[in-house]
Amino acid sequence: MGKRVAIVGTGQTFHKSHRPDVNGQELINEAVVRALQDADLKMKDIDAVVIGNMDHFEGINYVDCWSVDGSGGTMKPIIKLTTGGTTGCTVAIGGYHLVASGMFDKVLIIGWEKNSESDTTGAITTAFDPIWDRLVFAGAISGLAAEAQAYMARYGATDRDGARVSVRDRRHAMNNPHAQLRKEVALEEVLASPMLADPIHLLDVCPRTDGACAVIMASGELAEKIAPKPDWIWATAARHSYTYLGDADYGRLTSMREGAQEIWKKTGIKEPRKELDVIELYQPYSFGGLIWIEDMGIVGPGEAPQYIWDGNTDMGGELPINPSGGVISCNPIGATGLIRCAEAAMQVMGKAEGRQVPDVNFAFSTGFGGCWWTDMILHGRKKPK
Amino acid sequence: MADSNHIIIESGDAVQPFTYSIGMHGSKFFTEIRDNRRFMGIRCPKCKKVYIPPRGVCGDCFVEMNDWVEVGPGGVIGTFTILRFAFIDPETGHQKPVPYGYGFIRLDGADTLFQHYISVEDEKKIRIGARVEPVFSMNPKGSIRDIEFFRVID
Q1: DSSP type of residue A295
Q2: What is the pLDDT of residues A58-114, one digit of tens each?
Q3: Where are the domains of chain A?
Q4: How many domains are contained in chain B?
Q5: B18 burial level (CB within 10 Å; 0-12, 13-18, 19+)
Q6: Is B7 a member of any domain?
Q7: Are A340 and A284 a contacting pair, CB within 8 Å?
Q8: In angstroms, what CA-CA distances link B71 with A9, A105, A113, B33?
Q9: Which residue of chain A is at minimal alpha-carbon distance from B49?
């Protein structure tokens, strides 16, 4: 068994559609400085750095090398991890492994993206097989649309059910000064927005964002010294499920189901719906907010629409989802998964300000990639035994 | 199989500094499509799942597959979308003509889905479970474009 690990500080940029005032390393530095301030640590205290973003996105690779002035990685052990959309969650899991191993006591974890400097759809296409997947491919949205169609056909859900999720997340974003999009929308506005790929409307999906996020993890007793209320990592899981896009079981997220089951089993959670207090779901489009919480085991197959219409996942509900406004409100892709992790940590640490859910014992954060990958982290207030 | 039997995919007018090997299984698949208009899948000896595209290994069982089976050419729409927003196709450098139908086709006899265009001539006919058939190119070259699209025949 490895060492116990906790998050002791987080930092984010104020995410925007376009940050021409900074370059990549300066954007990264903003998040790093805020995380160090939050933990009351100096860069010299950090033993190792994990960094990542989407391969190819800005047409500049090797962020681990060129960003060291901003990341603080100069003359320190630094590695890059990149797994597509899941990158932000993967860097967190990688940092957790480094600290748990006992090799490093304090690790700085960074995710970032400048989508404004990228052709997002073009870059995403490079992640897919050139022979079989690219002919009809249309970036992240085509697979998501196919998933939503399959789910709707299987369970009788409608585009109104999807729109309700978008209305929720966009309302929650009003409480988060770091979110890019902070504008409430009505259900009818979502449905009236342009159809991008049936059944997905413009207001059902995430934007493209410039932003960075940093998280500091520390081992056992050290974490308790650094932070009065550290966010303990209880368990992590990661799943990849197929080779070609046509292999997936459309309408169900197999990687979420298997990863979540592993976490509930590892930690003895019997009823995630009752035992979790808040979820930061990597949910790049509204229908994912229906399908994936079923696969997570919050509700049964086909039950998510009613659960969400009843207000259970709104702020003040039984299990608030995405108090931050989620990915629909803000999506600097390589940072997006780490923002979920940081927001979950802030909920446990009591630092979520205007978006704080009261008395959080367990928070759950996830990462998602367009190849139907999922990774996830269970965060807790109590130190695991 | 000699190297000369392997098929090369080109990018049309756009120049890309990449040439990709399709591999043994892909080469057989596209040779059969080009010469015989036949879709070949491959069956896992352990779980019996029939894969298309064909490949050498079943990921679930992690065993080698050699049992070729003909699937299709007809099938049903497993799932689909209709793309309506314009974007530059990084494969060609040109704007993708929208709207277009994006089908995940369950070819008769296959367990995984085959991705291709679906004709959007009559959008109302496009639904999950609708029967489809391929329309083949008159000038086959041994690529995914030897099938022009699928059309609903219900």
Answers
A1: H
A2: 888 899 999 999 999 999 999 999 999 999 999 999 999 999 999 999 999 999 999
A3: 5-120+209-226, 128-206+232-380
A4: 1
A5: exposed
A6: no
A7: no
A8: 55, 56, 43, 12
A9: A247
Which three-class secondary structure state does DSSP give residue A321?
A: strand
Q: At what angle do helices A159-172 and A288-296 cross, to 10 degrees?
A: 90
> Residue B72: inside a domain, yes or no?
yes
Q: Does B112 touch chain A (CB under 8 A)?
A: yes
- Asked if A130 and B20 come within 8 Å (Cβ–Cβ), the reply is yes
Domain membership of residue B11 (yes or no) is no
> What's the rounded Cα separation, in Å, for the pair A372 and A137?
15
Respond yes or no on whether the N-terminal peptide bond of residue B53 is cis (omega within 30° of 0): yes
CATH number for the region A5-120+209-226 comes to 3.40.47.10
Give the closest residue to B33 by CA, choosing from B153, B142, B149.
B142
Structural domain of B53: 18-152
pLDDT, tens only, B57-83: 999 999 999 999 999 999 999 999 999
- Which token pair is A20? 């021409």
Q: Could you tell me which residue, B94 or A325, shows the higher pLDDT?
A: A325
Residue B122: Cβ-neighbour burial (10 angstroms; 0-12, 13-18, 19+): exposed
The string of pLDDT tens digits covering residues A151-161 is 999 999 999 99
Q: What is the CATH number of domain A128-206+232-380?
A: 3.40.47.10
Find chain B residues with C-beta within 8 A of A135's C-beta: 91, 115-117, 144-145
Cβ–Cβ < 8 Å for A277, A360: yes
Sheet architecture: strand order including A106-114: A78-80, A48-52, A106-114, A210-219, A5-12, A231-239, A373-380, A362-369, A278-280
**pTM beyond 0.90, yes or no:** yes
Predicted pLDDT at A245: 93
Which pLDDT score is estimated for B10?
61
The structure tokens 């998964």 sit at A337
Predicted confidence (pLDDT) per residue in B44-56, tens digit: 999 999 999 999 9
Distance CA A292, CA A306 (A): 14
By the CB < 8 Å criterion, does B81 face chain A?
yes
Which residues 20-79 in chain B show a CB within 8 A of chain A? 20, 22, 26, 51-53, 55, 59, 78-79
The alpha carbon dihedral of B13, B16, B20, B26 has a sign of: negative
**Nearest-CA distance A152 → chain B (Å):** 10
Q: Give the angle A162-A165-A166 at the CA atoms, nearest 5°.
A: 90
Name the residue among A131, A145, A198 with its Cβ closest to that of B144: A131
- On whether residue B78 sits in a domain, the answer given is yes
